[in-house]
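Good morning,

Both structures are done.
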Amino acid sequence: MMQSANKMDMVSKLQKDILGLQGFRTVTQSQHTDFGLGVIERSFPNGVFPTGAVHELVSHGRQDAAATSGFIAAILGKTIRQGGLGIWISQKRTIFPPALKFFGVDPDRIIFIDVKNEKDLMWIVEECLKCKALTAVVAELKEISLTESRRLQLAVEQSRVTGLMHRMNPATINNTACTARWQVRSLASEPQDGMPGVGFYQWHVQLLKVRNGHSGSWVVQYKPGQFNHMQKPATRMDRQLLKTG
C-alpha cells in the first residue's frame, strides 16, 4: 500500500514538472496573473493562462489580422502590467503604437523592431526569447517550421519569456511545438446603450489546440482592461463567421 502511494506521488510530481517546463505552473493566488479571460482560462491546465510559453496565433486577411493584433495587445497589456518590458518584431509593421494604450500597453515599454527579411526575423525572435530581461515578445511572421518552433519553445523554457507569434496568411497550418494555437476573427460590434456609432471590439476567439488542455470557441467583447463573454445570440453575420471557423 505504501509502495503504491509512493508511486502515485512520484507520478504526480513528474506530471507537475513536465507541465512546468511547458509553461503550465501551479501558482499561489498572490503569484497568479489574472488575465481576465474567464472561462477561456479553464481550458488550460490548472486553469492558468500559460506564461513563459510560446503561443501561435493564425489569421487570414487584413480584417482578422487586425482583430488578432488587438487580442495580442490585450494579452500583452496583462502580461507587462507589473512594469515588464516587451518587444514587437515585424517585417511590415501593422500596429500603431499609440493605439496600444487602449489595451493597457504603454508604448514606452515596448521596443519595436522592423526587419527586412524573414530569416533575420526568426533569428531575432529566438534571441529575444532567450533574454530574461524581457517579459514578452510579439512577432509578426508568416511561416514557422516545426524545428523553428521547437527552438523557440526551448528558449522560453529557460528564460520564462512569453512569446506571441502572429502568423499572417500562412500557406499551410503545419504542426508546431507551440503550447497553444489561437485563431481570432472580427465580429460586428454592438452599439452601447442605444448610442450611435461603433461599439467596443468584438471577436470570435478560438483555441484550436492547447497542450494538456481543451480546445474551445467563444464570442468575446473587449472593453478597456477587460474581456466580456457575450451571452446574447450572435447576429446573422456572426453565425456565418462561426460556422466557417
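Second structure follows.
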Amino acid sequence: MTYEAFNEFCRSLTATSYVIQWGDSHVWKVGGKVFAIGGWKKADKPAYTFKTSESDFLFLSEEPGYRPAPYFASRGMKWIQQYDMPVTEDDQLKYYLKESYRIVSLGLSKKKQKELGLNQN
C-alpha cells in the first residue's frame, strides 16, 4: 500500500483527523487518539503501525512482514508494524487498520463517542 492509499483509506473512516508528526509520519487519530501511523523513519519501503487486540498481537508478532511496533511494544502496548509487504496484502492491512480504529474509538468516553457519532449501535 502506498502512503497515498493509506491516507485515503484512513480518511474514509468517520471522525478521523490527520497530522504529520514524528519525523514526517502520517498520523491518523480518532477523537484525538492515534490509531494508525504511516511511516516512522525515512525508508525505501512503507511501514504501517496500528493497535491490535491481544490475540492479533501474538499472532502477527510471528508472521513475516510484521513485528511488534518500535517504541510502542517496548512499553507494553499492543501495537504492530507492517513492513516490507507486497501490494497484494492491502486488504489485510485495511482490516487491521479498521480494527485499530474500532479499538481506539471504543476507548473514548461514551460522551465523546456520541459526540463523534461512533459506536452508536
